[in-house]
TrEMBL record:
Provenance organism: Paeniclostridium hominis
Name this protein carries in UniProt: ATP synthase subunit I
UniProt main location, coarse: membrane
Pfam families assigned: ATP-synt_I
Membrane topology type: Multi-pass membrane protein
Compartmental location: Cell membrane
InterPro entries referenced in this protein's UniProt entry, alphabetically: ATP_synth_I
Transmembrane segments: 12-31, 37-57, 78-94, 100-120
Length: 129
């Protein structure tokens, strides 16, 4: 994988870990069933990290293809990633040991990390200007 892309993936995963730690602390203090919520958070976060890594790999690979083949490849990889998310949510909903809300928070931690990064960078750029 490209060095810049690898650094970006690592940065997002570090952000996800920080967000998950904050969420875990909140869950411990605010949840009626913290064990199931924490299991869901961990389950969702691990899948989100793997899903983000799959996205990076497919992005890097798709830019080497001609446009038509790249579109087909990207679409097929997108469908696979969404199928994985669907299976994770289904398993979470069916299992009594995993809370689906915790799983959803874990799956969304990628988005929270990216948004947090963009907000922090925007504020730093505004201060420099």
């Amino acid at each position: 994988m490209n060095n810049t892309l690898t650094n970006q993936v690592r940065w997002v995963i570090k952000g996800m870990v920080i967000i998950d730690l904050i969420a875990a602390i909140l869950i411990i203090f605010l949840s009626n069933s913290p064990k199931e919520m924490l299991t869901g958070l961990l389950f969702g976060s691990i899948i989100a990290m793997l899903n983000f890594r799959l996205l990076a790999i497919s992005l890097q690979k798709s830019v080497t293809y001609p446009p038509t083949k790249a579109q087909i490849y990207s679409t097929s990889r997108y469908i696979i990633r969404m199928f994985i998310v669907g299976v994770v949510l289904f398993v979470s909903a069916k299992s009594p040991h995993i809370n689906i809300i915790g799983t959803a928070i874990g799956l969304l931690s990628t988005k929270f990390a990216i948004l947090g990064k963009s907000i922090v960078i925007d504020k730093l750029k505004r201060k420099e200007a």
